[in-house]
Amino acid sequence: MAWFYLLVAAVFEVVFALATNATHGFTELWPSLLTAAAAAGGIFFLSLALRTLDVGVGYTVWTGIGSVGTVVFGTLVFDEALTVWKVLAFVLIIGGVIGLRLADRLTGDRPAAEPEATRASFSG
Fold this sequence. Notes:
Layout: H1 2-22, H2 29-49, H3 55-78, H4 84-107, H5 116-122
Helix pairs in contact: 1-2, 1-3, 3-4
């Protein structure tokens, strides 16, 4: 389920980035509200994914998918230029995401260890 949550979080990340562009500096109400909702949704689903995934893997994959998705949809929605260099960068990012997924699979999908300092700081 962690990888599903991460994918949902990445979709929210793409919506967040595109909606932020549409706010025109947060002067447009509906895109601004969509931006806030997408940011909250992305962080919520990322936090669910990080229950199981290591933060380094989860956050990197989330931002990688979000980055690629934002450029692809920015090209489609906002008519931004798609260059050979951007496509090459996509390939590298996607390769890194696949590599992280494979690394996670090889080490097993196990709950991340909670650092001692975190337990002490956030325990009630």
